[in-house]
Amino acid sequence: MRRFPLDNWETRQRGYKFLSPTTYSAHHLGLDISANIGENLYCPTKGFVANVTSGPQGGKTIWLVLENGWLVRYLHLDKIVVAPGQPLEEGQIVGKSGNSGLTTGPHLHMDISRDGELRLNDLSNFIDPEVNLQMLVHPSMDKYNDKIVRNPLGQFGLVVRGKKFIMPQDLGTLALITFLQRLPSPNAFDPAIVNISQQDWDALPVSPNLSFN
User: Fold this and answer.
1) CATH code for 9-137?
2) How many degrees, rounded to 5, is the angle at CA 150 between CA 164 and CA 196?
3) Can you give the pLDDT at residue 18?
4) Region 121-150: what's the mean pLDDT?
5) Domains of the chain by residue range
6) Is the dihedral of CA 98, 100, 101, 105 positive or negative?
């Protein structure tokens, strides 16, 4: 079964960071997510281990190539339990989260390169782990993209690139459509309102603002 890199993925604290300029980039290219030392780390899909490394900044690192061609890296690990070239099954344990390398505390840093190559000078090659893992593990969630959704509690949301922008609770249907018409890309949305289960609503990451990029 496809699964996220850590248990209880949806409820963990996130920490995107924008770092001061370094020797390769001024950007944080992945996702930092809270994790204690020694938690299981999983391979999201079938794939293989491209490499395992250890260094002063990334600490113990696993390089995974997934069945769709993505290169996924897990950094700052405490323990690695796989070897280069090893084939992997969906959900297979590959290591334990930790605090190795240059960190401010235990956590998992992960990043994804879309075409299976790590090119630190090409930011366009890196994709958002939050959104893309959601669609990889739960592909049925893609049906909500560019839709207005309403959950069983009567909350409305606009779904863009796998994230929901929650509308004010007291916003009625007519006001919602009026709001939609004022957006930078109003034609991007299906005007019909789609009912969404509470489970799917809770699984969609929250976007603090609308982004059409």
Assistant:
1) 2.70.70.10
2) 85
3) 37
4) 77
5) 9-137, 141-203
6) positive
Answer yes or no: is pLDDT of 117 > 90. Answer: no
> Average pLDDT for residues 1-10, to the nearest whole number?
85
Task: Name the pairing type of β-strands 40-42 and 93-97.
Answer: antiparallel
Quote the tokens at residue 32: 């930092």
If we measure between CA atoms, which residue out of 152, 139, 151 comes closest to residue 206?
A: 151
pLDDT tens for 68-88 read 999 999 999 999 999 999 999
Q: Hey, what amino acid is at 201?
A: W
Q: Name the token pair of 184.
A: 């930078």
Phi-psi region of 112 (alpha: psi -120 to 50; beta: other; left: phi over 0): beta
What number of other Cβ atoms are within 10 A of residue 178's Cβ?
11
CA distance 194 to 149: 5
Read off the DSSP letter of residue 139: G
